[in-house]
Design a protein that fits this description.
The chain has 2 domains: 115 residues, no CATH class; 119 residues, no CATH class. The protein is 48% helix and 16% strand. The chain has 9 helices and 8 strands.
Length: 244
């Protein structure tokens, strides 16, 4: 089952090859491969991918960029002396074929823009309540294991598998880690300042999704404004850590 090493083993392995490569071009190609692994996992497509690998349908030739990535991965695979690494690299190559054959090249390109940018990762769904999220999950014909979602502005990972029904969702510290990294580096100047939360919400409602995130102040206190285009979701998060 692909869940056993995707992405837990694949991403560190590709990252190691990136660090060891003296070529900038190779590092960029490996970044695409790493992003493809993350895309399959964090959009909840592990089971679909596993079925793809089992059925091995005929596929259209991959896009030119994928050809370069596949050629590099195949070369690395040939040179590797590890049977385990060869299997992992083959799975990564299959992930690129899966994305291409399922018509998700544009989706991967969009994900890679997030992958390469210093911003919060996209989610596949957003819900106001736990019950709304559970109802949605119950309706999924295949559990989107590993997918990121928002429940009441909190980030969660789908943990329901075919073998286990519970737990459905696990909270993940995506937001806290993102804010924490900026606190370590020093917060940037706010892009806007508001006297009230209502004024900030009005501004955020008209902010283009391409902004993705922005630091603002409300009554002199820092907040993080987040735009999630895929799920038409906007939210304000107070940076309480910055006040301590």
């Amino acid at each position: 089952m692909i869940i056993e090493y995707f992405p837990g083993d694949a991403m560190p392995l590709l990252g190691r090859y990136q660090e060891d490569s003296p070529s900038e071009e190779e590092r960029e190609l490996l970044d695409v491969a790493n992003g493809a692994v993350a895309f399959v996992y964090f959009t909840g497509q592990l089971y679909r991918f596993d079925e793809f690998r089992t059925s091995r349908p005929s596929v259209h030739p991959p896009a030119p960029l994928f050809v370069q990535v596949l050629e590099l991965l195949e070369r690395i695979r040939r040179e590797s002396s590890s049977t385990e690494e060869k299997e992992i690299l083959l799975a990564v190559m299959d992930a690129l074929s899966f994305i291409e054959s399922s018509g998700q090249k544009k989706g991967l390109e969009e994900y890679l823009r997030y992958w390469e940018a210093d911003t919060l990762p996209p989610v596949i769904a957003a819900f106001k309540t736990d019950s709304e999220a559970e109802t949605w999950l119950d309706e999924q014909p295949v559990p989107p294991y590993g997918a990121r979602v928002l429940i009441g502005n909190q980030y969660y990972s789908v943990k329901r598998s075919r073998e286990r029904r519970e737990p459905g969702f696990l909270p993940i510290p995506t937001l806290e880690e993102f804010i924490g990294s900026h606190l370590e580096e020093g917060l940037p100047p706010p892009v806007a300042a508001f006297n009230t939360k209502e004024d900030a919400e009005s501004w955020l409602a008209n902010t283009p999704f391409s902004t993705r995130h922005a630091f603002i102040t409300i009554g002199g206190k820092y907040h993080l404004a987040v735009c999630q285009e895929r799920v038409n979701h906007r939210a304000l998060y107070p940076l309480r850590w910055a006040e301590q």
